[in-house]
Every structure is written in structure tokens, then in C-alpha cells.
Specification:
Blueprint: E1 6-7, H1 10-18, E2 23-25, E3 32-36, H2 40-50, E4 59-61, H3 65-70, H4 77-86, E5 91-96, H5 103-106, E6 111-115, H6 120-129, E7 133-134, H7 149-156, E8 162-164, E9 176-179, E10 186-189, H8 195-199, E11 227-231, H9 234-241, E12 249-253, H10 258-274, E13 279-283, H11 291-301
The chain binds threonylcarbamoyladenylate (TXA) and magnesium ion.
Length: 310
Amino acid sequence: MSQQVIGNDVDRALEILRNGGLVGLPTETVYGLAADASQKKAVAKIFATKGRPNSHPLIVHVASIEVARQLCSLWPHSAELLGSTYWPGPLSVVVNKAPDVLVEVTGGHQTVALRVPGHVMAIELLTHFNGGLAAPSANKFGKVSPTTAQHVLDDLGTSVDYILDGGPCAVGLESTIVDCCGDIPVVLRPGGITTEDIQKVVALGVDELGISRAPGMLPAHYAPQCQVTLFQELAEAMRASETFDAATLRVIDASINPLVFASSMYAQLRQCDIDGIKHLRVVLPDAIGIGLAIRDRLTKAAHGPKSQSR
Ligand code: TXA
Ligand code: MG
């Protein structure tokens, strides 16, 4: 009898990873598509499965700050402050890579993004794995990120060898990426750890939202099939939707409780497509706290799947 693709067998996941296979990895942000970061062929499978360009670097997940230090050539003070404060958690730091970190993982760059995920099952797996797991979000390139094991199966099917089911992701959107290579750290992608949180620990550069500097970040991303339109006020969203067919229209107010909204945002985008929604109107939260990351993702989703260059 064929084995289940979704389950909670950490030993099975470990064996698959050691043999160069792909595992759906639960984290607190989104599910990752994990492979052994030290095996070129395994890493190549990630790119092939996602349909992702080879130049887009992957985040390497590790069990602890001690392992993270071993994967870089120089461990910056800012990375130490951020890692020791927010790991395990939704934060990735970009540092200069150690010589043995594969350029296939880093998109040809001499830097590597590292993160200790805040999910018990991920930590258990990583602790036993005793190395780095390269893992992008486990969705097809440009599409909505997965926040349940079922989403991973829906998107990638049996091209993933096994999916560890760690339940729905608590944060629901990707990690904050901070470039720690320069004298002053820079936020490359807003995420689960807010800019305000980061500023409690390190001073950020004036271009703290230099998002365009992160390789592989495109204007269109995280996009459902339906058309996403963004509004600042609910009244404005309702007014602009009066003439639309109610059966294919959905209005979501993300400004009421941004933290709760974040945790279900991708599931809601997916549900729109399942329900045959054609026009999704979203009222944006303020650009503070988690609101900044929500606005970033929804702005990219609003560029739509058709404007995505693939
Ligand atoms: O929360 C997350 O970060 C999730 C979970 C699975 O950990 N992962 C994730 O990976 O969002 P992905 O591949 O979807 O996005 C990784 C982003 C890329 O857009 C890339 O630009 C940036 O990380 N990145 C990776 N390595 C980098 C590097 N060396 N320098 C700059 N940016 C880098
Ligand atoms: Mg992604």
C-alpha cells in the first residue's frame, strides 16, 4: 500500500531529506519546501518543483544560532543581537556566506539568508538533521503561499516526497528579512517581526524598506486568480463595489484586527479562488506593526497573476 504523503513522522522526513528528497516543512510563518542545503541535486529539485528561477536565493533554516554562525564567514554583531532576541521566530538575517555554503542555494550570491523557525516540529526536525535545510515557501512560483499541509499538497502534489503536518501556521505570512552585511542593517522584506521590534534591538538604515534590494522580489507575487483591489476605507470599498455581481464579489476588512487577519490571509486568498470569486476588495490596515507586511503582500497580490513574469 502506498504511504500517506501528509503525516507527522519526523523520522521519515529525516530519512527523505538525507536521501536528497523534498519535505513540506511546517513553520510559524508559511510552509516551506525543504531540501538538504548541502546537496546540489536536492536543491535543484526545489527550483524545478516550484518553477522558480535559479537566481532567486533560498533561505537556509537551522536549529539554533550556533548552527547559523557556522554557515557564515563573518557573524555580524547586528545578526547576533537580532538572532539572540527573535530566534526561534519569523526573522531571517542575510550575512556573508561560509565558503562551503552552495552558490546554488544563494542564487550565485556570496551572502546567505539564515533563519531559526519558531515551530516545534521544525525545530525537532532540524535538531536531528544537524545541518541546514534550504526552504522557500512551498507554493508554485508567484502564487499564494501555503499555511496548511493540505495547501502544499494542493499546490505541489506528489512532487513533494512527504509533507509534515504541523497544523495551520500561527503567523501566516513570511519572515522579516534583514540584511546584516553592511554597517547598518536594512530590512529587505517586512514580515512577522515588525520594524518597530527590530528597532528595539538595532538601529536601521534610513532606507530600511529597501525592498527592491532583495534578489527575486517581484512586483507581482502571492497572487490568487481573482482580481485584488485595495482600499483605505471600508465605505470606499463598498461604494466602488455597488455595481458588481454580489455572487462573485468579496469584501474583506483587514484593518479591524491585522494580526488575526495575517494568520488567515493566504487561506482567505485561496478560498476566494475555490469559491469562484472574481473581484476581491480588501481594506488595508495601517502601515505599522504587522500591517506593513500585510500591505506589502497584498500590494503584490493586487498586481495579479497575469502581470507576473514567469
Ligand atoms: O518565512 C519565510 O521566510 C518562509 C519560510 C518557509 O521560512 N520562506 C520564504 O522563502 O518566504 P521564499 O523563498 O519564498 O522567500 C525568500 C526570500 C527571497 O525572496 C529572496 O529574495 C530572499 O529571501 N533572500 C534569500 N537569500 C537572500 C540573500 N542572500 N540576499 C538577499 N535576499 C535573500
Ligand atoms: Mg515565497
